[in-house]
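Section 4.2 – Deliverable D4.2 (structural model, holo form)

The reporting period included a commitment to supply a predicted holo structure for the target in complex with 6J7. Inputs used:
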Amino acid sequence: MVAAVRTLPHTGHQFYQVSSPGTPTLPIRNIRELPEATAALTDIKLWAIDRQGFQTIMMRTGLIKHSQYTDFLRSVPSFQSLPEDILSKLADVLEETHYSDSDYIIRQGASGDTFFIISEGQVKVSQQNPANDEQLTVKSLSKGDWFGEQALKGEDVRTASVTAVGDVTCLVIDRESFKQLIEGLDGVNNKQYDSNEVNAKLQAETDFFSSVSLSDFNIICTLGMGGFSRVELVQLKNDASRSFALKVLKKRHILDTSQQGHILSERRIMMEAHSPFIIRLYRTFRDSKYLYMLLEACLGGELWTLLRDRGSFDDGITRFYTGCVIEALAFLHSRGIIYRDLKPENIILDHRGYAKLVDFGFAKKVGLGKKTWTFCGTPEYVAPEIILNKGHDSSADCWSLGILVFELLSGSPPFSGSDPMKTYNIILRGIDMIEFPKKITKSAANLIKRLCRDNPSERLGNQKNGVKDIQKHKWFEGFNWDGLRQGTIGSPFTPTVNGPLDNSNFDFFPEDVDDPPPDEESGWDLEF
Ligand code: 6J7
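Output (structure tokens):
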């Protein structure tokens, strides 16, 4: 049954309003525009509104919205001085848009044609650190604040990113209306941002760390112990909210094991490595017995501990942690640095559960396209060309990445013998000799095999598109790389971290009761 058909004069199209028997007229947005020849497919009941009724409803709805918008604009300090007729025109032209949590409203670098006024909710403005890919939050804005004028004033390029924090509603004004109605307004016209806000933040950080000394920290507990180092959780005496990890190395031990070169290289590389997927080194100290590295504290624990407790991870979880590692490797490789010690023990989780690379003792800046020959790494993770002393480059990290994916998915690395020599022999037989456990899916196995090719030049990640090829592999299909980089996607496990001194995600280490090491003042460590 067709109850009402109205033909629109300019299109010839007809409006139907559909309703089931016994229900009142549906709201106006449920009206569907249907082609002229539409016929009922089943018995239906339509409620009709005549032209005048329809227009009255539309007009009233429009008027109500218009007056809501003008009231709101009048309440925004920057627009208060605008005459009524301009406010009214603005209310006519703006469009309401809605965003959900973490949605990008504006992306830095994109071109832009719109100006935004927040009518509900909160947004975060962030800018890219020019030294790396890190996004630094510059400020938060809320109801009544506006943004997006920069791209409309000069070049049409967005100078910052703006993302929604929770649900957000914005009133959006196009370039033409902005020019006619808003641009000249005092406060908008001359709005200036400290163009060096990001650099200023970094400078403030550098200034802060160059002013602190070891005596400014209290030692809280030990987070880890290595061959010739101990990592202590320390807290700033005058700011209890700030904790750090202090890596303490015995100088004499470094000299006795000829590790000076590795330690100096670790310091140089880490001081420059400003990536959200690499633990930060803020500054170093030295005295007659020890070297000290003041590091970012990541209190979520080691990925190794999580793997030990869970046995293995499923595809989704492995994808997330591998994604973090790939971002770290992309950062390093693009700067000619190879990491050379990938394994779950060297991946640490921050309070959000995001993974970061730690321990750069084997990392080396070789330069783009260059090779190095030093034998180093952890037996289960070393690439065949390192064992065969053929010279290696960043593709050795791609091999180790394949081993890591295998270990995270299955709980153990593919090549493992009872001693390092046996392990090396198994590695040299190649990945095709390994039987993959059933829990490793076909597509994951394909990724692992393509990363673990015997010939380094055939490895995924070592071809002209570099690490991008790994990111494009079908095992990563649908993975939100942007969300990972921006830190907006959820991590698989959010660790419980109750404040800056919570070490509960780390194993217990007894206090250091050894005698202090002898002094070592030959001077090789002057740059520390
Ligand atoms: Br709000 C805000 N604060 C800043 C800032 O400190 N620097 C920059 N460059 N932009 C900031 N913004 C707003 C401003 O309205 O973020 C918008 C991004 O798009 C920018 O305008 P846009 O460049 O068009």
